[in-house]
Amino acid sequence: MKKIEIYTDGACSGNPGPGGWAAVLLYGEHVKELSGGHEHTTNQRMELQAAISALDALKAPCDVKLYSDSAYMVNCFQQNWHVKWVANGWKNSKGKPVENQELWKQLLTLTDTHKVEFIKVKGHADNKWNNRCDELAVAAVPK
Questions:
Q1: Is residue 19 annotated as a catalytic residue, yes or no?
Q2: Is 126 annotated as a binding residue?
Q3: Contact by Cβ (8 Å): 11, 46
Q4: Superfamily (CATH) of domain 2-140
Q5: Whole-model pTM?
Q6: Which residues have a Cβ under 8 Å from the Cβ of 139 and sit 6 or more positions away?
Q7: What is the pLDDT of residues 4-40, one digit of tens each?
């Protein structure tokens, strides 16, 4: 299995509002940048979309270290929130429907294909690839 590093980020101008997402995929000497935007969205949706788009771009099952400054996304996997959501019929701990369910379901399908370790990084700090993702995500926000 190829070992890939992925950095992701989402951005939103207003929340909700126009938003952008970005990912940087690293494999050996290869660097691939992805980004996109939506007219009306939220920051959390853009964080999830970045991870979905990055994992979906992989052509074969991979061993992935996915770095994100989104506590929302990283905590979901590190603390197994998704296991509880599925067991509870996609209801959260308060009995309400999980927000962004369709994106979470896409992401879970991709984590079944790839071996993914989600790692939290500090946003807007000195991490080269997280900063690059932020630049790309902000640039992808529709004007």
A1: no
A2: no
A3: yes
A4: Ribonuclease H-like superfamily/Ribonuclease H (3.30.420.10)
A5: 0.95
A6: 20, 35
A7: 999 999 999 988 999 999 999 999 999 999 999 999 9
